[in-house]
């Protein structure tokens, strides 16, 4: 074959390849893009926009925690991908990031509102809240919006609360006024209420319930309207694959009880501390905890139990009073009985170090009797109930739970049956008889609250708020 023929053949082949490439590119351009859900699964990462709030995301004892965080983590596991949380600087930016696709979804305790539905698309609801007017205890309490003077009410800009106020002004109260703040969080508004810097704000009921343990003067004046749904938010596009997957997941966790257990974990113990309880607790943190903290930390090193949990137990038992004595003879920081002290090798229950290490070791002894199959956090709450009421009575309550066809390994179910131990028709059928079963329920709930507060206190960087909580009060 001559060189010319070979050259012409090569040119022809190259031309065919070029045409094939062009047609291939055109074919690819005509193909619809892969669904968002498929792309996320192939990339292995779900990017979620959120915000820092007690009901959403916070730093817990072992790292990131919070109702929305855990629920989103379960969704990521459901999809088989990793989770990455990002935190836009304010609510405006969060909604914009969701609407523009900078994040795949928003999990931030967002209320479904007409204005937001114009910007984003929501999942099925997984919670309901009520909006509440918040005022400071000790100040004049308004009973309706007509009693609110100009300049008194402060809300977050572009929040569902501001949308509610706009609707009320348009339809019912044309003279209603308020001040909007784009750079403030709910906690900062609660703090301003606490400091008497502002008179009123609006909060979601679940967020206020948690925050009142820190901002103890914040109280509900009245509620605004009916309960409103909370949901995840997604970009409004033709591709609805991710939102549909989220709906399937949320319906699943509602049906299998996972959602109920999450709500019990994060919110089931709140609302148990009143103004006096929280004020006395923070005084105890200021006046008594510093001297006892080394003993709690030493006991934690020996037993592996978080020192803040041991401190929470100690506060519930004695309010950190080293010389505390009950009418039944239990005494010391951890209020040990004589029998328990002897069992734990404690010679002086009034000695705080001995009392604390004895209580920690006894807690471990109770924990070892809990069936190994029971995982945290149920294992911890059941252990605390057994520490308070006795392991035998705890087992009786678990038997009642099983008789009812419920799961005896879940604290949520057992705590419902414990109070029945005080009723004859129940305790006469059980091995260990009568017990004041409501006491361990209250005991565990209070300890969980104190533990939450100690975790927050030891992890927050907000030194000014910490100092305010510990300051001497006269009101």
CATH architecture of the domain at 277-470: Orthogonal Bundle
Helical run tally: 21
Low-confidence stretches: none
Q: Which overall shape is indicated by the principal axes computed on the Cα atoms?
A: globular
Radius of gyration: 29 Å
| Largest sheet composition | 9 strands, mixed
CATH class value of the domain at 277-470:
Mainly Alpha
Q: Indicate the proportion of strand residues.
A: 5-15%
* Number of strand segments: 11
What would you call the structural class? alpha/beta
Average of per-residue pLDDT values: 90
What is the fold named in CATH at topology level of the domain at 277-470? Lysozyme
State the share of residues found in helices, binned by percent: 40-55%
Oligomer: single chain
Write structural notes for this entry.
The protein has 475 residues and is an alpha/beta fold. The protein has a domain at 277-470: Lysozyme, CATH 1.10.530.10. Helices cover 52% and strands 13% of the residues. It has 21 helices and 11 strands. It has helices at residues 3-30, 36-43, 67-79, 91-100, 114-119, 160-171, 186-194, 205-211, 241-255, 258-267, 275-287, 289-303, 307-318, 338-343, 352-369, 378-389, 391-403, 411-417, 424-427, 438-459, 463-470; strands at 45-49, 58-60, 63-65, 82-86, 105-111, 121-122, 127-136, 153-156, 179-181, 200-204, 218-234. Strands 1, 4, 5, 6, 7, 8, 9, 10 and 11 form a 9-stranded mixed beta sheet that branches. The chain is globular, with a radius of gyration of 29 Å.
């Amino acid at each position: 074959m001559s060189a010319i023929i070979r050259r012409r053949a090569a040119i022809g082949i190259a031309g065919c390849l070029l045409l094939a490439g062009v047609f291939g590119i055109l074919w690819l351009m005509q193909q619809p893009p892969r669904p968002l859900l498929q792309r996320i699964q192939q990339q292995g990462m779900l990017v979620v926009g959120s915000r820092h709030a007690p009901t959403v995301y916070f730093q817990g004892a072992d790292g990131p925690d919070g109702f929305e965080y855990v629920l989103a983590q379960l969704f990521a596991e459901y999809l088989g991908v990793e989770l990455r949380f990002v935190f836009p600087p304010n609510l405006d930016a969060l909604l914009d990031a969701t609407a523009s696709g900078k994040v795949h979804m928003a999990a931030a305790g967002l209320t479904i509102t007409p204005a937001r539905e114009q910007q984003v698309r929501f999942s099925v609801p997984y919670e309901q809240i009520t909006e509440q007017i918040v005022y400071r205890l000790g100040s004049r309490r308004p009973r309706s919006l007509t009693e609110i003077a100009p300049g008194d009410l402060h809300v977050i800009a572009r929040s569902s609360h501001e949308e509610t106020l706009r609707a009320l002004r348009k339809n019912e109260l044309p003279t209603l006024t308020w001040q909007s703040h784009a750079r403030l969080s709910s906690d900062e508004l609660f703090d301003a209420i606490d400091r008497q810097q502002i008179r009123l704000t609006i909060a979601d009921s679940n967020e206020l319930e948690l925050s009142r343990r820190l901002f103890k003067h914040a109280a509900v004046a009245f509620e605004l309207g009916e309960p409103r749904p909370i949901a995840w938010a997604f970009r409004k596009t033709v591709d609805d694959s991710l939102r549909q997957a989220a709906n399937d997941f949320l319906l699943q966790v509602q049906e299998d009880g996972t959602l109920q257990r999450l709500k019990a974990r994060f919110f089931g113990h709140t609302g148990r501390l009143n103004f006096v309880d929280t004020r006395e607790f923070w005084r105890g943190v200021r006046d008594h905890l510093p001297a006892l903290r080394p003993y709690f930390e030493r006991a934690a090193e020996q037993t592996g139990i978080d020192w803040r949990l041991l401190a929470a137990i100690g506060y519930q038992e004695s309010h950190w009073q080293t010389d505390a004595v009950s009418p039944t003879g239990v005494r010391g920081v951890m209020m040990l009985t004589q029998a328990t002290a002897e069992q734990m090798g404690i010679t002086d229950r009034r000695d705080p170090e001995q009392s604390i290490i004895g209580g920690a070791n006894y807690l471990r002894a109770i924990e070892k009797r809990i069936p190994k199959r029971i995982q945290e956090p149920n294992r911890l709450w059941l252990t605390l109930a057994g520490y308070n009421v006795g392991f035998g009575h705890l087992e009786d309550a678990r038997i009642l739970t099983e008789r009812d066809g419920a799961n005896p390994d879940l604290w949520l179910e057992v705590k419902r049956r414990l109070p029945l131990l005080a009723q004859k028709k129940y305790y006469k059928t059980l091995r260990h008889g009568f017990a004041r079963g409501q006491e361990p329920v209250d005991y565990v709930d209070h300890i969980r609250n104190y533990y939450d507060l100690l975790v927050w206190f030891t992890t927050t960087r907000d030194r000014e708020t910490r100092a305010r909580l510990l300051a001497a009060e006269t009101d």
